[in-house]
Amino acid sequence: MAERIYLYDSTLRDGAQAQGIDFTVADKQAIAAALDAFGIDYIEGGWPGANPTDDAFFADRPASKFAKVSAFGMTRRAGRSASNDPGLQDLLAVHTPTVCLVGKAWDWQVETALKVSKAENLKMIGDSLAHMVTSGREAVFDAEHFFDGYKANPVYALDALRAAHEAGANWLVLCDTNGGSLPSEVRKIVAVVHEALPDAKLGIHCHNDTEQAVANSLAAVESGVRQIQGTINGIGERCGNANLIALIPTLMLKMGFDTGISAEKLTQIGKLSRLVDDRLNRAPDRHAAYVGSSAFAHKGGLHVSAMSKDSRSYEHIDPVWVGNARLILVSDKAGRANILSRLQQMGIDVAADDPRIGDLVTAVKAREAQGYAYEDAGASFELMARQTLGFIPRYYDLQSYRALDECRVDADGNHVTLSEATVKVAIKDEVVMTVAEGNGPVNALDAALRKALLPHYPALAAMHLTDYKVRILTPSEATAALTRVMIESSDEMGATWTTVGVSHNVIDASYNALYDAISYHLMKRQNPAA
C-alpha cells in the first residue's frame, strides 16, 4: 500500500495573515466545512484569544466528519509555568482535538526576539508541549525558523526538536519561516533530522519568498517528512505559503502517496480552490497548476496537431483526474488542427478536408490582426464558426443606433450625466425602434436593445452582463486609439460566456461585443446542443 502523507491546512490562520485578506466568521466556517468534505486531515482554525473573529469561529466551529480542527498558539511565556500561562489556557479552553504550538528553533531569534536564554527557551518548549499532552491533546510543534536556525547552529536547532519530542509532541514540524531555503538544503537537513530523531514524526511548513515553497515541501517528503502544512492557493503572509492545491495532486499522481483523499474527491480540487477565491472576492489564477483555466489550454498549431494524435504530447496528466478540461485556443497562432479540435468540442461535425475550414482559419487570422482575441472570447469564435459553416440564423439585423451623453447641473450644483440610446432593428420582418436611458452609453444601448428584442425573445430576461473590459490596442493614437471590448455574460443557470468587439469607437466596439453576447445566448436557448 502507498505510504500516507498527512495534510495540515493553515488557510484560516496563516492564510489570513496575507495582505488584503480578512476572513469573516462565516468565511472561516464555510472554508472549514469545505476542507473537511474534501478530506483534509487537519484544519488550523486560528489563534484563540488573538482576535474576536478567531474566538467566534472556535465558539461555533462547524462539526467535522473527517478533519481534526487544530488551535494555534505559542509556547509559554518566560517566567510562567505552563499551567499558569494565559495563552496556553486559551488554547485548551476551545477543546480542539489538536493543538499546534510554535516555538523558536534559531538561537539568534531566542536571544534577540524573545530575549531569554537558550536554556530557558528549551524549557518553554518542553513544558508547553508536555502540558498539552497531559491535557489530552494531540500536540504539534512548529519549530519556527528551523532551517535558518540549523544553518546557524545545528546543535541548538536539534535540541529544540528534542525538547518537544521528549515532552511527547506527536508531530515535529520544520518551518522555513523566512522562505529563503533551497530544495537541496531542505532535503539534506531533513535527512539529518530524520537520522537524529528516527522515531519522531516529522512535518514541513514552508513559506514562498523564493517561489520554492512547493518544491521545498516535496524535497522534505523525499527525506522522510510525512505531514505537509500549507494553504489553499498558497495564500499567506508576504509571498504566501506552500500551495496545497498544487501539492496534493503532485503527491498523489506524481509521487504515488496516499493523502487520504480519494481519486473521486481529487476531481473536486478546482472547486475547493475557487471557493476560497470566491470568499476573498478575487479572480482565480487562470495559470494555476492543475486547476487553472489555462492549465490544459493549447494554442500553437503544432501542439494541437500533436494533441489530436495523442494527448500525452503536451499534457503531463489527464485533466479529468483533477476535474479540469482540455481547452483548444483559437488565435492567430492557430492552424487547421486548432479549428477542427475546437469545432469538435463545440459539437460541430465537419470533415477535415472541408474547404470552409481554410476560410475559417483565414478569417480568424485576419480578425486577430485587426485586434480581436478569440482565445479569450470563445463565444464570439463559436458564433463566427457557426455562421461561416451555415449553422446559425441571424436573430435580428441592426439598422441604426445612436447613443447620447448629456451632462446637467442639478439643483444642488452637482454634475449629473444622463445617457440615452436609440436603436432601430429588424426582427422577423418587423422594424422596431426603441429608446432607453442608462447610467452610461453601453448600459443605455443594452436597455434599448432589450426593449426591442424581449417581446420576440423572452429568454433574454435571464441574461446579465457580469464583466466589461476595455483595452487600448494602439496607445500611440491617444484618444483616437483602437479599442478592444470584452464582455462577460451569464444566465440564471450559472453559465458564463465571453464575447469581443473591436473598433476605434469604444461604443461601436461595445455594441459588437454585446451583439455577440445576445446572439450566443439566444442560440444556446433555442438550440441547447449548439
UniProtKB/TrEMBL annotation:
GO terms for molecular function: (R)-citramalate synthase activity; 2-isopropylmalate synthase activity. Its EC number is 2.3.3.21. InterPro entries: 2-isopropylmalate_synth_dimer, AIPM/Hcit_synth_CS, Aldolase_TIM, Citramal_synthase, LeuA/HCS_post-cat, LeuA_allosteric_dom_sf, PYR_CT. Keywords: Amino-acid biosynthesis, Branched-chain amino acid biosynthesis, Isoleucine biosynthesis, Transferase. It catalyses: pyruvate + acetyl-CoA + H2O = (3R)-citramalate + CoA + H(+). Pathway: Amino-acid biosynthesis; L-isoleucine biosynthesis; 2-oxobutanoate from pyruvate: step 1/3. One of its GO terms (biological process) is L-leucine biosynthetic process. Signal peptide: none annotated. It comes from the Bacteria. Residues 5-267 form the Pyruvate carboxyltransferase domain. PANTHER family: (R)-CITRAMALATE SYNTHASE, ALPHA-IPM SYNTHASE/HOMOCITRATE SYNTHASE. Belongs to the alpha-IPM synthase/homocitrate synthase family. This is Citramalate synthase. The lineage of its organism: Bacteria, Pseudomonadati, Pseudomonadota, Alphaproteobacteria, Caulobacterales.
